Amino acid sequence: PNFNAWLFLFSKESATMYGYVYKITNKTNDKIYVGQHKSDHFDESYFGGGVIITNAVNKYGKDNFDREILE
To answer: pTM, whole model, 2 decimals?
Structure first.
């Protein structure tokens, strides 16, 4: 997929930042986790950093989740 279509850029003190909203779906129980991430580089492998999603991934395994960039 072309992730550039889903990214927005903004400048803060001459530094380019990437920000995006993502949705992670647990394929086992259909629970949905929505989050946002911003960084000075686009990290295609970012999978959320909150306690709830981290615990769920540890419990069910990363292969049981789908990630989608929303914006």
So the answer is: 0.71
67, 24 Cβ separation under 8 angstroms: yes
Cα 18 from chain centroid (whole Å): 12
CA distance 59 to 65: 11
Beta strands (DSSP E) in the chain are 8-12, 15-26, 32-39, 65-69
Q: What is the mean pLDDT of the chain?
A: 81
Selection from 65, 66, 69 nearest residue 20 by Cα: 69
CB of 20 within 8 A of CB of 10? Answer: no
